[in-house]
Amino acid sequence: MSNSMDDVAKEAKAFFIIGSNTTEQHPVFGAMLRQAVRQRGAKLVVADPRKIDITEFATLHLRHRPGTDIALINGLMYIILEKGWENKSFIDERTENFDQFKATVMNYPPDVVAKTTNVPVEKLYEAAEIIAQNSPMAVIWAMGITQHIVGVRNVMDLANLQMLLGNMGKAGGGVNPLRGQNNVQGACDMGGLPNVYTAYQPVTSEEVREKFARAWGLDSGPRTVDGKTVRGLSSTVGATVTEMVPGILEGKTHALYVLGEDPVMSDPDTKHIRHCFESIDFLVLQEIFPSETAAYADVLLPGVTFAEKTGTFTNTERRVQMVRKAIPTQGDARDDWWITCQIAKRLLAGTSDRVRSDAPYSGWDYVDSSAIMSEINALTPSYGGITHARLEAGERLQWPCPTLEHPGTPVLHTKQFTRGKGKFMPIDHVPPAEKPDDDYPMLMSTGRVLYHWHGGQMTRRAKGLMEVYGEALIEVNPNDAEKMGLIAKSFVRVTSRRGNISAQAWVTDRVPPGMVYANFHFPNASANELTHASLDPVAKIPEYKIVAVKVELA
Ligand SMILES: Nc1nc2c(c(=O)[nH]1)N[C@H]1C(S)=C(S)[C@@H](COP(=O)(O)OP(=O)(O)OC[C@H]3O[C@@H](n4cnc5c(=O)[nH]c(N)nc54)[C@H](O)[C@@H]3O)O[C@H]1N2
Ligand SMILES: Nc1nc2c(c(=O)[nH]1)N[C@H]1C(S)=C(S)[C@@H](COP(=O)(O)OP(=O)(O)OC[C@H]3O[C@@H](n4cnc5c(=O)[nH]c(N)nc54)[C@H](O)[C@@H]3O)O[C@H]1N2
Ligand SMILES: [Mo]
Is 389 left (phi over 0), alpha (psi -120 to 50) or beta? Predict the structure, then answer.
């Protein structure tokens, strides 16, 4: 998030929630937003094809057709420009490329947008007025925006909207993607991406590689020493998860070390994923439970749960938070970081890469996670001042926090953007990869429910949760149910070009006619048997939100 949960919840005059089931998937922040609407009259526009819980609190719910977000956002910006509601001084002083952007937006007049999105013209005007005339306005989104082949373009268009209205760099505004997992922000910050070291320092930069090479006692690139090739740090951008697993069948991936992921449940097109794992030469899985993926592992390494570890998680608002070991390590399990260090040591011992042992961080001999944090402080500018000692003393730190004296940064881009001026991007609507047709006439969207967590390894072991939500349910609109002759608790079979699942129907107007909604929490009826691996070309995220399906009484 460019902003913080507190300033958004306390200071925004309006919220625009687009593609985020906020109260079910981010219940704490969801409750804060609900309170802001109820207690201080903040306005709320929700754009979501489904009638999710937060829509009950909405000033206006735009129930647009899935996969038409760009048309919708451009349509709203057209009206903002038509009415002269844009923030001219912000556009002049802080941005560039406005004219080119405007030329694109002019192709999205309300009548055209209404046809593409299925949102009536009057509602477009109403929404534009609420989000433009209540300032500051905060945009909030999650997977409903990103899990599309146009995920990156969707996000850029929301950034366009916030620059157009001058809502960047102020409390109560901003672009606020809600990060899903407790530490997914931290994982990205720590270089858990194929193209960067910590804090987005590119692997392609010679200067960056030199810095890490010096710290780790390695070479910054391949070199020949005494007739032997020393690999050194690689300047090649690696693969994403959605490339690594299919890469097995293409002969590009021979071995995988998977930590805390259950791709057999969570990656698209499960049949294909299983086939990939059946073909892999060597699979190591570091887990806390024998997951669906464990069946394919050559080696299982027992990691520890959050309750058994000390370290930090970085949450969606860039706040680094201390987690303390609450219970002793169970059984043969070991700290996840300790296991990784043991593997790294053995790998290093077996290579011809030179390790200069006088380098400050060469040995993989950390005594605890605070020693790891010291290395992070030394090599990661935005985490330079975030130490366990400060966090233990109760400081609430959000990166960037470059020095020990720095108080952290609750709101980003207050004076300028990272690149200087904010660049408006002309973004056009692109239809989804799969469209309903005669064979697969309905549209399936996928996601989660309040009571379960992804592949369900943890939540399906919780008795209380299973009592409330014990099996996969497929949301079906009452009109479609009637056409199919469904009654309460009927089972439906949902079929896509990849496979089929059968599960109990939940007949509800949460979904519009023509659309069903399924989750991937239960192995016997996981939505990913049906999803497809069409990827966003930049982020390589799959289009989990739009699948053409056939739905029948099972
Ligand atoms: N209980 C629970 N909470 C969780 C998780 C969990 O598994 N269980 N997972 C966590 C993780 S990792 C994540 S990433 C987040 C995900 O959090 P969210 O993104 O909020 O959850 P999703 O269920 O993926 O779906 C988001 C919304 O997008 C809508 N949507 C579908 N298609 C479109 C579209 O084309 N356009 C728009 N605008 N909206 C669309 C759906 O109707 C849905 O309401 O949740 C986190 N929180
Ligand atoms: N169809 C469809 N598919 C989706 C999505 C969707 O909306 N629709 N959403 C996608 C998204 S946003 C996400 S984030 C992914 C999530 O996909 P995954 O990350 O694969 O799902 P999880 O079930 O959270 O898997 C985490 C595994 O880690 C284990 N684990 C938990 N804690 C620890 C720990 O401390 N150490 C170790 N070593 N292991 C641990 C758990 O037992 C679990 O098996 O799913 C994606 N897949
Ligand atoms: Mo996620």
Answer: alpha
Q: Where does 442-553 sit in CATH, by number?
A: 2.40.40.20
Separation between Cα atoms, residue 15 and residue 235, nearest integer Å: 42
Contact by Cβ (8 Å): 270, 241 = no
**Residue 306 DSSP code:** G
**Using one digit for the tens of pLDDT, what is the confidence trace for 62-79?**
999 999 999 999 999 999
Q: Which residues contact 375 (CB under 8 A, 6 or more apart)?
A: 215, 360, 361, 366
Give the number of other CB atoms < 10 A from CB of residue 122.
10
DSSP character for 381? G
User: Which ligand 1 atom minimizes the distance to the CA of 448?
Assistant: 23
Q: Whose CA is nearest to atom 19 of ligand 2?
A: 261
Cα(46) to centroid of ligand 1, in Å?
A: 13
| CATH 3.40.228.10 is the classification of domain 5-178 | yes
168 dihedral zone (left: phi>0; alpha: psi -120 to 50; beta): beta
CATH number of the domain located at residue range(s) 184-244+303-398 in this protein: 3.40.50.740
Q: Is the peptide bond before 177 cis (omega within 30 degrees of 0)?
A: no
Q: Which residues line ligand 2 (CB under 6 A)?
A: 143, 147, 180-181, 259-263, 266, 286-289, 291, 303, 305-306, 336, 446-447, 453-455, 457-458, 520, 527-528, 531, 544
pTM, to two decimals: 0.96
Nearest one of 473, 518, 526 to 262, comparing CA atoms = 526
Tens digit of pLDDT for each residue in 189-198? Answer: 999 999 999 9
Q: Is 52 in the pocket of ligand 1 (CB under 6 A)?
A: yes
The whole-number pLDDT of residue 107 equals 98
Q: Report domain extents, the chain.
A: 5-178, 184-244+303-398, 442-553
CB–CB of 13/172 below 8 Å? yes
Tell me which ligand sits closest to the C-alpha of residue 431: 1
Helices 69-83 and 98-105 sit at what angle, rounded to 10 degrees? 110
Is ligand 1 within 6 A of the CB of residue 384?
no
- Ligand 2 center–CA 262 separation, angstroms: 6
Neighbours of 35 (CB within 10 A): 14
Interval 143-157: pLDDT, tens: 999 999 999 999 999
What does the pLDDT read at residue 322? Answer: 96
Ranked by mean pLDDT, the top range of 225-229, 284-288, 329-333 is 284-288
Q: For residue 458, how far is its CA from the centre of ligand 2 (angstroms)?
A: 10
Q: What is the mean pLDDT of residues 438-460?
A: 97
